Amino acid sequence: MAARGVSLSIVHTESSLGWGGQEIRILTEMAGMQARGHRVLLLTPPDAQIHAAARTRGLPVQAVETRRKSVRGLVAMRRALRAAAGFDVINTHSSTDSWLAALARPTLRSAPPIVRTRHLSTRVNRSVATRWLYQRASAHVVVTGEALKTQLVRDNGYDPATITSVRTGIDLARFRPLDRAAMRARLAFDARPALGIVATLRDWKGHDDLLDAWAILHAQGGDWQLVVVGDGPQRQRLAERVRVMGLDGSIRFAGNQEDVPAWMACLDLVALPSWGEEGVPQSLMQAAACGRAAVATPVGAIGEAVVDGVTGLLVPPRDPVRLAEALARLMADPALRERMGAAARARAEAEFGLDRMLDAMERVFARVAAQVR
Q1: CA 324 – CA 220 distance, rounded (Å)
Q2: Which has more confidence, 3 or 296?
Q3: Which of 2, 28, 109, 255 is the most buried (most CB within 10 A)?
Q4: Would you give the end-to-end CA distance of the chain in angstroms?
């Protein structure tokens, strides 16, 4: 049943063809809202990875050619929004679909208001047109971390009353500590302790810095292994780099994995040395929920996922030497890893739950929809 007895109809738009935390958040939110009795629909290009993922998960999705900011894209968005009559809110997610929806909406009779969700910390330009998009065309802006809200208010002069930070929620019943030995047997892990990174293989996620740090640690000896979970445009280049560095025997590329909790259970420590464009990364919240300490960088809103010295360690971005030092400290101290992992789980239970995200998004959607009723 919908919260407070109010059933909402929410149409999401996503122009991105890729796959990562943003797309996972959209589908997680849609599924959660649908389970609460709300009506949801996703408008996205037919070859977008989120299109196939939505169908697999049984979520309503419609193919719309909106991958580019063009007249064709605008016409397609207008047609799709006109057909989606009766919806209360349009929730846009990427730049292209946000612009197309904002331009199409004034041409439609009784079109619902727009909530613009911003998932990354990429800087927003200060042009008049962009200010119109965020402060006039959008009824409200949602960001995925307080640091992103601060950035928009400080750097762009946007009204803080028009922006709400809603951290992505984690299903704590699914992401929880599991039996390490059983999961390692199931996923064919050997006896070596494991450091892992769970992220799309994009350059700014810091995989190269992690490899440089790993080379330092490897030269110092030790019996750890590095597990790279995820796929993406950098896969082939990174694999070749590992081969050239002579690190093949200590690094495992696992590709995309649906059962992330099982992989987290096999890891002893998690890293995400990202250097840009982050909200609050889901992989770090998932690691915390699974009771794993993490080493990361304080970019974007990562500081909301990892509390330095409490649930993990934060190091400067693009600094493999400092990264290696932090990793070495935790790799050498199982008791410290355990304490930090327990603190991370406790914080996840208090701050990262799925219902917190759904409650907050319900409030935003209901408030925006009520303004035009």
Answers
A1: 11
A2: 296
A3: 28
A4: 22
Phi, psi of 12 (to 5 degrees): -100, 145
142-152 pLDDT, tens digit each: 999 999 999 99
The burial of 49, by beta-carbon neighbours within 10 Å (0-12 exposed, 13-18 middle, 19 or more buried), is given as middle
The Cα–Cα gap between 252 and 371 comes to 52
State the Cα angle at 87 between 21 and 66, rounded to 5°: 50
Model confidence, pTM:
0.89
Separation between Cα atoms, residue 218 and residue 223, nearest integer Å = 9
Give me the count of residues in the chain. 373
Neighbours of 47 (CB within 10 A): 11
Count of CA atoms in the C-beta half-sphere (13 A) of 27: 19
d(CA 21, CA 15): 15
**33 contacts 2 by C-beta, under 8 angstroms:** no
pLDDT of residue 1: 36
For residue 30 the two structure tokens come to: 């849609």
Per DSSP, 204 falls in state: G
- The phi-psi region of residue 99 (left if phi > 0; otherwise alpha if psi is between -120 and 50; otherwise beta) is alpha
Cα torsion at 81, 82, 83, 88 (round to 10°)? 60
More confident residue, 110 or 319: 319
Beta strands in 47-123 (DSSP E): 61-63, 89-92, 114-118
Would you tell me how many other CB atoms lie within 10 Å of the CB of residue 9?
A: 18
Q: How far apart are alpha carbons 371 and 345 in whole angstroms?
A: 39
